[in-house]
Design brief:
It is a single chain. It is globular, with a radius of gyration of 21 Å. The strands form five sheets. Strands 2-10-9-8-7-3-6 form a seven-stranded mixed beta sheet, sandwiched between helices. Helices cover about 35% and strands about 15% of the residues. The protein is built from twelve helices and 17 strands. By secondary structure, it is an alpha/beta fold. It folds into two domains: about 140 residues, Aspartate Aminotransferase, domain 1; about 250 residues, Aspartate Aminotransferase, domain 2 (3-Layer(aba) Sandwich), CATH 3.40.640.10. The longest helix is centred in the last third of the chain and has 27 residues. Bound molecules: D-malate. The site of D-malate has 6 residues, from loops.
Length: about 400
């Protein structure tokens, strides 16, 4: 008899973005003449920049020759890319290339990292939260049952981020082993200052807690005193793994390339109190379960750091940040209370009084033919909020706001 992993049965419905995609397809089937504007899932629309394309074309030609052909690459990523990441993204932060693990996505890294957790690790997440952190721990058996009344899983510690606390999570009040933080935040688009993040680092050091810091949106930071990397905080290398991605920075959502930083100073513990290097543990996991990102893609990622690449990518980021401004300001004019969208491609708005997030989703889809993401899909504290992304085209961002104003 084949027994399944019953933890999966605790998961709620389907993955948030799959539920939305299904709803939207159904609406489009029933209304084929409607022009839907999708500002739901944070998927980019600008094409891959010329510098990256050039590097990828070159790499394609190279692997078509006997001298340039590449078979299996190093599971952790080619040295040229690990070096480029260490020298550029972590300049002055003393991150060594051996601490960088190139992967096919930050979503995959965030999901896979749980392999190195104890099955009883107590997990803290912010609420609302990027659903991958929570769902992968539910799959791994680190949650209790889902409580329909509270909208929360038992045995998971939720750290609210909402307007009442200025979207700054408080430190956990009970003992936890792992804390997930994502800043600039998905979904709220808000940021933490260095002082605010330092509180978490100090807490983690004091309590031997592991922080998983997702900084997939760091390229969108426009404000001063906002850390791009958790390693800007003293002592963070002893407590944190950082995830980054080329997806939103360089339009790689389809190309796929990201990386995790697992510092050599970072240790976990066995039940008998023995210290174990997380870098070694993660390396063991990666070499066993992964065969690396393709050479062509890694050469493309390397070109992100070239002078040309940097310039071109900066323009794309500016394009999305301009969209964020259009959406943010437009929503304010329409009378909405709006958060985020300054150092982030996400705009988090309060839905009109008396409405639930999913009701607002349905109303917007039906009346304005605009797709966003209901805040409640990210956790109970997201109820009453709604997320729009700035990753669409400028024309669609303008048109979406025009339509929203019309129906409000
Ligand atoms: C989102 O919309 O939250 C993101 O696109 C999800 C992701 O990066 O996987």
């Amino acid at each position: 008899m084949f027994y399944i992993n019953e933890n999966f049965l605790r998961l709620q419905d389907s993955y948030l973005f799959s539920t939305i995609a299904k709803k939207v397809s159904k609406f489009q089937e029933e209304n084929p003449d409607k022009k839907i504007i999708k500002l739901g899932i944070g998927d980019v629309t600008k094409p891959i920049v010329p510098a990256v394309l050039k590097a990828m074309h070159k790499a394609v030609d190279e692997i078509g020759t006997s001298e340039g052909f590449k078979g299996y690459g190093p599971e952790q990523g080619y040295d040229f890319l690990r070096k480029a990441i260490a020298e550029n993204d972590y300049k002055g932060l003393n991150i060594d290339e051996s601490e960088i693990f190139v992967s096919d996505g930050a979503k995959c890294d965030c999901g896979n990292i749980v392999d190195i957790f104890d099955e009883n690790s107590k997990i803290a997440i912010t609420d609302p939260v990027y659903p991958v952190y929570l769902d992968t721990n539910v799959m791994g058996g680190r949650s209790g049952e889902f409580n329909k009344e509270t909208g929360k899983y038992e045995n998971i510690v939720y750290l609210p981020v909402r307007s009442e606390n200025n979207f700054v999570p408080e430190l956990p009040k009970e003992k936890v082993d792992v804390i997930y933080l994502c800043f600039p935040n998905n979904p709220t688009g808000t940021v933490l200052t260095k002082e605010e993040l330092k509180k978490f680092v100090d807490y983690a050091k004091e309590n031997k807690v592991l922080i998983l810091f997702d900084s997939a949106y760091e390229a969108f930071i426009t404000e001063p005193n906002i850390p791009h990397s958790i390693y800007e905080i003293e002592g963070a290398k002893e407590v944190a793994i950082e995830f980054r991605s080329f997806s939103k920075t360089a339009g790689f959502t389809g190309v796929r390339c990201a990386f995790a930083v697992v510092p050599n100073e970072l240790f976990g513990y066995t039940k008998s109190g023995e210290k174990v290097s997380l870098n070694k543990l993660w390396n063991r996991r990666v070499t066993t379960k992964f065969n690396g990102v393709s050479y062509v893609v890694q050469r493309g990622a390397e070109a992100v750091y070239s002078e040309e690449g940097r310039k071109e990518i900066k323009e794309n980021i500016k394009y999305y940040l301009d969209n964020a401004k259009i959406i943010r300001e437009g929503l304010k004019e329409a009378g909405f209370t709006v958060y985020g969208g300054v150092s982030s491609p996400y705009i988090w708005l309060k839905v009109p009084d008396g409405m639930k997030s999913w009701e607002f989703f349905d109303m917007l889809l039906e009346k304005a033919n605009v797709v966003g993401t209901p805040g409640s899909g990210f956790g109970p504290c997201g109820e009453g909020y709604f997320r729009l992304t700035a990753f669409g085209t400028k024309e669609n961002s303008i048109e979406a706001i025009r339509r929203i104003k019309e129906v409000m």
